[in-house]
Amino acid sequence: MKFFVVLFLSLLPLWAHAIEVGERVAPWTLLDQFDQAYTLDDQAQILLVARSMDAAKLVDAALQGQPKGYLQARHTVFVADIQRMPRLIAKLFAVPAMRAYNYRVMLDRDARIAPRYPGAVDKVLWLQLDNGTLVAQSEYSSAAELRQALEQVKP
After folding, report:
1. How far from the centroid of its chain's Cα atoms is residue 86's Cα?
2. At residue 152, what are phi and psi to the nearest 5 degrees?
3. What is the pLDDT of residue 2?
4. CATH classification at residue 62
5. What are the Cα distances from residue 81, in Å, to 8, 39, 54, 65, 154?
6. Angstrom distance (rounded) from CA 15 to CA 7
7. For the segment 88-108, what is each residue's pLDDT rounded down to a tens digit?
8. What is the three-class DSSP state of 78?
9. Residue 136, in any domain of the structure
10. Does the residue 5 lie in any domain?
11. Is 61 helix (H, G, I), strand (E, B) or coil?
């Protein structure tokens, strides 16, 4: 009996419904690198999702030289899926290093949020939102392309 329960629970994420263009994005709350809570609301216009360290490095490279508040001014929220990172490494090294960033990183420590938005692990997923509804999505594999896309967003 335990086997079937474990099997069911392990297959449950496969039945999770991925969001599609035209659908409303369900609100969620995550902590940032300073342990400050952020709840996704209708003010967010862009949601950037990085599922790996390589993807997060793309975001960091795209934001190099930008002033503090650059993402917030563009109503952009950055989510980093760090659930694959060993907790001790995250706690002692990675998250403290993120505190030096001049932008907020919403940390998905338990993969509760990032799996809702499927995409390539090595790319940054860009979700364009309008009053909480997904209107477009794209993926970026280079920091230069991501930076150019962010510069086109009016603050």
Report:
1. 18
2. -80, -15
3. 55
4. 3.40.30.10
5. 24, 16, 11, 24, 27
6. 13
7. 999 999 999 999 999 999 999
8. strand
9. yes
10. no
11. helix
Question: Cα(first)–Cα(last) distance of the chain, in Å?
Answer: 55
* Spatial distance between the Cα atoms of 80 and 56, rounded to a whole number of angstroms: 7
What residue ranges in 83-132 does DSSP mark as E strands? Answer: 106-108, 124-130
Encode pLDDT of 62-98 as tens digits. 999 999 999 999 999 999 999 999 999 999 999 999 9
Note down the domain range covering 121. Answer: 30-151
Q: What is the pLDDT of residues 20-50, one digit of tens each?
A: 999 999 999 999 999 999 999 999 999 999 9
Phi-psi region of 76 (alpha: psi -120 to 50; beta: other; left: phi over 0): beta
Any domain includes 122: yes
Query: Which pTM value belongs to this model?
Result: 0.87
Tokens encoding 98: 């993120």
List the beta bridge partners of residue 146. Answer: none
Q: Residue holding tokens 């809702």?
A: 116
Residue with tokens 């509804």: 133
Q: How many CB atoms lie within 10 A of CB 34?
A: 10
Task: Give the SS3 label for residue 48.
Answer: strand
Residues 134, 118: Cα–Cα separation, whole Å: 13
